[in-house]
Amino acid sequence: MILLQLFYEFFKIGLFAVGGGLATLPFLERVCEATGWFSHQTLVDMIAVSEATPGPIGINMATYAGYATAGIPGAICATLGEIAPSMIMVVLLARFLKAFAVNPTVKAIFYGIRPASVALIAAAGFGVLKITLLNLDASSEGLLAIFQWKSLALALAIFAALDIKKWKIHPALAIACSAAIGIVFRFAE
Amino acid sequence: MNPYLDLFITFSKIGGLTFGGGYAMLPMLQREVAENRQWATEAEIMDYYAIGQCLPGLIAVNTAIFVGSKTKGAPGGIAAALGVVFPSLVIITIIAAFLNNFADIRIVQNAFAGIRACVLALIVNAILKLRKGALVDLPAILLCAAVFALAALTDISPILYVICSALAGIAIQTVIARRRAS
Questions:
Q1: Is A67 a residue whose pLDDT tops 60?
Q2: What is the tens place of the pLDDT at every residue in A154-170?
Q3: Is residue B64 part of a domain?
Q4: Distance, C-alpha A82 to centroid of its chain
Q5: For residue A147, what are the β-bridge partners?
Q6: Residue B129 CB-half CA count within 13 A
C-alpha cells in the first residue's frame, strides 16, 4: 500500500531530520534511491519549487515528493507523515519543554547531531552538483564536454551575489532570475 | 469564531505568506500570534522558536504546534499544524501537476536547467550558514568531516548517522565535563 509506505517514510524523516527544511534533503535522497518513487532530477526540481514558493521548505518538499509518487493522496500522506512526529512529541513533552531545552544531555545530543546534519546536507548537495554540473552522457566527447559550463558560471555568480550581505537577495528572486537566464541562454540545449 | 478554526486560519495565513521557511516566519508569528491574537507573548514565541529548533521536525511546524497546544491543548496543536501546512499542500500540488504536464516544453526545460544551478548555490549558501552554529569546536569539526566522508563514500541510511552522532555528542560532552572537573 503505497500511501501507508509514504506516510511511514516521511514519518521517519519528521522524526530524524534535525535543523530545518534542507535537513530533510539527505533523507529524501535516500528515499529516492531506495524506492525509485521519483528521480534525482525531480528531487532537484523539488528543492527549487520549495524554495521559490511560500510555506516551510521541508513541508513543500514532502508535498512535492508525495505528489510525484502518488498524486494528491500521496501529497497529503507524505505531509501528514512528516508532521506527525512533531505533533506527538510536542503534545507529550509540552509540560517539560523548558526543562528539556536546558537539559545537559539533550544539549550534548544536539551538539553531536548538528555537525552530522551539516555533513549529510553537504553529501546530498554533492548529488545535486553531479546532476547540475556534469553531463556524463557526453563523456565520449572529451573531458571538456562533461562540464556544464553555463550552469557552473551561473551557480558561481549566484553564490557570489548571495554572499553580498547588503543586497539581501531573496531565494525566490535568485530562482526567478536563474529561470530567466536559463531560458535566454538555452541552458537545456 | 470556533477557536480551532481560528488557529487553523491564522496559521494558514502565516504558512501561506512566508517565503523561505522557518527563519522567515518569525516576524509574521510575532505580529499575528503576539500582537493580533495574544495567544502567546513575544518572549514565549522566542522560547518556542528556540526549542523548536532543538527538536526533530520542522521549526515552523514545531512552533505552530507549541502555540496551538498552549492555547487549546493537543487538539489546538493539531489545528495549528494542519493550518501551517495547508497552503503548501495546495500550492505545491498545483505547481507539481503543472510541471508534470509541461515538463516536455523547451522553455520549461531551459528554465529548470537554469534554476538547478541556482539551487546548487542556495544549498552551498545554506550549508555555510548552518556551519556557524554546528561546527563550534574541534571535536564537532572532526565529527562533521567523518560523517561527510562516510556519507559520500557509503550507502548507509541517514537515520543511523543521526543516532550515532547523538551518542558521539553525549560521549564528547562527557569527556569535556570530566576534564573540566579534574
A1: yes
A2: 999 999 998 887 887 88
A3: yes
A4: 14
A5: A134
A6: 15
How far is Cα A91 from Cα A86, in angstroms, rounded to an integer?
8
Q: Domain spans of chain A?
A: 2-101
Domain that holds residue B138: 127-181
- Split into its structural domains, chain B has a count of 2
- Residue found under cell 523539488: A46
State the best of B18, B160, B162 to mutate against chain A, taking most chain A CBs within 10 Å: B162
For residue B25, the chain A residues in CB contact (below 8 A) are 56
Residues with Cβ within 8 Å of residue A104, at least 6 apart in sequence: B173
User: From the list B113, B116, B170, which residue is nearest A109 (CB)?
Assistant: B170
| B27: in domain | yes
Smallest CA–CA distance from B71 into chain A, residue:
A94
pLDDT at residue number B59: 85
**B174 and B133 within one domain:** yes
**Whose CA is closest to A181, among B18, B3, B19, B118?**
B118
